[in-house]
Design brief:
Pfam families: Lectin_leg-like. By secondary structure, the protein is an alpha+beta fold. It contains 4 helices and 15 strands.
Length: about 425
């Protein structure tokens, strides 16, 4: 009974702290203690450093993957041991400095073959690889961008005409010449994959799951006008101290969809939910070793159950958040549709008023044009009649005209005859 009471007390203590516990994976981390090169030999324990054409410079508190000069440099650092957890959190502190038009990219990898397939390549020069790549660069001439890429080993990135379209998530972030390190954190749980930059969400998805057995690595590449990429630390942590790597995980490839199974009723099943120890009578434990073994087994079972409850709680919380977002999105769309409908009704009313005004204006113009045409016709008719009457009344008749002509001729003949007679009767003067 004493052992059972101790088990209950420890289980209660564990229940209050299991959700907050984070365990450092020392063989996958560096820089968390303040120093990188502990023995002064230019090496980081558990990591391999490489570069082209020069090796990255390792200092006491940082590693310079690419220097500020010269350009066209590549540098990389890869963990020798694979990640054996299925739920984990990784933090990378980096800094980028360079001239005004400096450029380059920093790549954070979680890949199966690690340095063998990728080495010091960037996302633009790597071939086929299996895993995840987070890229920080000035994509498309912007101030900066963080993008996520996935590959199941079938896509040859170096032969892709447009690598940018393969990104499954992105956000804008101005990272150059800040004068301080930037922190990028990416986290995988049993229900989602999330990327944060300086404590702000960059992107999140529940369609990505990286199985255990992959290697962490960082690489940087620069052009002619380079940026200097400095890495201060990489810290990998997990909520579990138990390795999640087994034969099934070794055979499993990267999955773009959620790997959780669902029961016919729609609830998610957890393989640890059935790991419950049956009750046993106290008389069975006659030795301290048996009591300790029972206590150990029960604590382990309680830990698994608490982890299962925690994961289920996270899944329900995620589903609740997703449902809330869906409801907000639906309400927003409904509000937009109502506003759009009201705007359409108002627009239709205005159109009808405008049509009525145009129709009345057209009728008024038509009536005025008709009236003006009638007035013009009447005026032209009256003017034509008056002109005809005037011409007709002022023109002399034919008889009068003949009489005038004949009379004029007769007067001229008479005058001529009188002139001749008068000339004949006048006396002749002789000189």
């Amino acid at each position: 009974m004493r052992a059972i009471g101790l088990s209950a007390a420890l289980a209660a203590l564990l229940a209050g702290n299991v959700a907050q516990a984070q365990w450092l994976i020392n063989e996958l981390s560096f820089g968390h203690s303040g120093r990188l090169d502990h023995d002064g030999h230019g090496k980081i324990p558990g990591f391999t450093i490489s570069g082209q054409p020069h090796q990255p410079e390792l200092l006491s508190n940082k590693i310079i993957l690419t220097p500020v000069a010269p350009g066209n440099q590549r540098g990389a650092i890869w963990a020798d041991s694979p990640l054996t957890r299925s739920a984990w959190t990784a933090d990378v502190d980096f800094r980028a400095n360079g001239p005004e038009r400096g450029n380059g990219n920093l790549n954070i990898w979680l890949a199966r073959q690690g340095s063998r397939d990728i080495g010091s390549n960037s996302i633009y020069t790597v071939g086929k690889f299996e895993g995840l790549g987070l890229v920080i660069d000035t994509h498309g001439g912007a101030t900066g961008m963080v993008r996520g890429f996935l590959n199941d080993g079938s896509v040859d990135y170096v032969h892709q005409h447009n690598v940018d379209k393969l990104a499954f998530g992105h956000c804008y972030y101005q990272y150059r010449n800040l004068g301080r390190p930037s922190q990028i954190k990416f986290r995988q749980t049993h229900s989602s994959f999330r990327v944060d930059i300086d404590g702000t969400l960059c992107f999140e998805t529940d369609k990505v799951s990286i199985p255990p057995g992959y290697h962490f690595g960082l690489s940087a590449a620069t052009p002619d006008t380079p940026d200097s990429f400095e890495v201060f630390k990489m810290v990998v942590m997990s909520e579990s101290t138990v390795s999640g790597e087994d034969h099934h995980d070794k055979q499993q490839k990267i999955n773009y969809e959620s790997r959780q199974t669902r029961s016919p009723g729609g609830a998610q099943e957890d393989p640890e939910a059935g790991n419950i120890m049956p009750d046993q009578p106290a008389e069975m434990y006659t030795t301290s070793s048996a009591q300790f073994q029972d206590l150990h087994n029960r604590l382990q079972s309680a830990t698994h159950l608490l982890n299962a409850v925690h994961r289920t709680n996270l899944q329900h919380r995620k589903k609740s958040d997703d449902d809330q977002e869906d409801i907000k999105h639906t309400l927003h769309e409904l509000r937009e549709q109502l506003l759009h409908s009201n705007r359409n009704d108002d627009l239709n009313h205005r159109i009808r008023e405008l049509e009525s005004e145009v129709r009345s204006l057209r009728d008024e113009i038509h009536n005025k044009l008709s009236a003006h045409q009638d007035d013009l016709h009447r005026y032209l008719g009256q003017h034509h009649t008056l002109l005809s009457h005037t011409v007709t009344s002022s023109m002399p008749g034919h008889g009068k005209l003949i009489f005038i002509i004949v009379g004029t001729q007769a007067l001229l003949v008479t005058a001529y005859v009188l002139y001749k007679k008068r000339k004949a009767n006048s006396p002749k003067k002789y000189l």
